[in-house]
User: What shape does this take?
Amino acid sequence: MGPDWKAMPLVGVQTLDGARVVRVAATVVACYPAADPGMERITAVNLAEAGLKAAHVAQAFGVTPQHLSRLRGRARQQGSAGLATRPRGPKGPSRLTPPTQRRIQRLRAQGLTVAAIAERIGVSVGSVSHVLRQPAAMQPPLPALAPVAPDPTPPVLPATPHPVPHAGALLLVGALDALGVFQAFRTLGASVGRAWRYDWARTVAVVALVFGLRLRSIERLKTLLPSALGPLLGCRRAPGAQTVRMKLVALAERVDPQALHRELLRALLAHTPVWEQCYYVDGHFAAYHGEHPAPAGWDPHRRLAAPGHSDAFVHDITGRALFALHLPCNGALSRVLPQIVAEIRAVVGPTTPFTLVFDRGGFSGDVFRWLTAAGIGFLTYLKGRAAKRRVPAHRFARRWWAFEGRRRVYWCHERRTRVAQAGRLRTVLFRGAKDAQVPVLTNRTDWPAPQLVHVLQCRWRQENSLKYLVEHYAIDQLIQYGADAERDTRRVANPARRALRDRLTGLRQELAAGEAALGRALTANAEGRRRTVRGLKIALAPLRRRVAALAGQIGRWETRLRHTPARVPRTALEPRARRAILQHDRRHLVTAIKLAAYDAERWLGQRFNQTYRQAKDYLTMTASLFQQPGTLHLADGVLRVRILPPADRRVAAAFRALCGDLNARKLRWLNTDIRLHFEPAVNQTAPSAGELLTEF
Assistant: This one.
């Protein structure tokens, strides 16, 4: 059942009996054959040029706002001919000869992905897909985990123990394999083109290591010796910053970043399910200080509107980062919740119930009604409740709920509150800090009041997680500098209304002065001179006519003000107004790798804390293990990593237990069959500086 709330998409596209039907609100504006892509492009461009928001049109037609902007530019320069379907590929003789097509079919039968076939033969991915779509090809179904083409350059690993300054960083690589990160990339057919030395697995690993070692930027690779990270990647030298940037460009072209977030979410849920299917949603704004006219958003740190870009992050109740969703136009959290629901349902299934937890940024009666109709629970704070509407203290009851081995006690009072467009919803008030009465709004009727309160209180774990990600993983970095320009059709305040208000203010002041003059004349009237009202009116006729004329003008200007729209498109004020949508494909890809590295670090920390048992600093101690030196060597298909244990006995004991735990899981090194084996170095001192600079 589709949503019927007022915030539903303005533009809708449906396929009915082989035809595409396009509607704006409830009016059908176009109908054309579904197999006519040229007509679809013309329709999308016409709707965007007519003043509809480009993001809404792009979402309805299933394209990105950047692609729609390119189509609009092509239409302005070339007309409808620029939107016609054009043949792809070289204009000369075709390279897809019959022997080449048969070779493509044979490679497909061996289980290779489309990207791997295109790379091996030397043609585009689209050409391979065209051959495999032919009825005569009869290609076999794609296996669940397609094998990846072998790396042209085998890994260079030492056969004898070799000193490495950051041997402990391989703990993070092993954790990435445990959480299924490399498997997710394999499933999506990841590739960086012709990999002579650094394939996609090494690219992913070096990005994760950059932030795991707290370098906070890919550019900081310039501050490391190439031989410091090279042995961890099976190379004599680690890639430089420019090489990593080029590899990320190629990787973003082969792997859809949002599909990667979805696949990583699937891997995380397979590893550890989400508690009670409870998902925490929050937005994060990153300011932009470049030269492009980027759309403005609300910067909570500076508490003002500023150019930048926003992302919506989804966590679970433990603070584990599940996935992120990019918001190119800085939409409100209430507008992005349907997209969050779609991403979750794409992984957990259309019938699995779940609950969303968010702050007041997602407060919307229309959204509440839609979530309830879709069978989705929500939990948020009641918005707009005045502080003076306090409930007497004797109405609060002491309630408790057991969670994570502890009893959580709250003073609660339950009632129902009417919310516009959503009806009466359950409200639980609890006494917070400084005797504040905090209202919790929800449609969950099966959870007890203290459980609702504590689950919403756990939202601060997501806040702390975002602070940690900003500080150590730099999730607000720009990564790429490109932008796509488009017409600025955002609705802004109409300056004509301000001019009308100023004019009305002047007229009202003049009318007040005229009426005051009439009053003074009446008070100062000499009875001996003018004994009748008629005589007074005749004497003050010019002033009375002026007052009447002012009253009539005010009425006409007020009518004009009522019919003047409060907000108009910016193009109505500036016909050549443009705005820039920042490109986000590489940034969104790197964000997925950052979240995966963060989750891997937390997973290692949880294993480490089983012995360490210090909740305050276990993450700090886990991150310090990545800096520990050691040795590594390859023997019998096992990469043995000996890491110098920390000096503290308690930390060293937890480190030894962590090594045993990881070895029992039989983790693999990068995207290979080489197993990782960790062990603390016994009676070993830190390697000298000369040893660290030696290349094997």
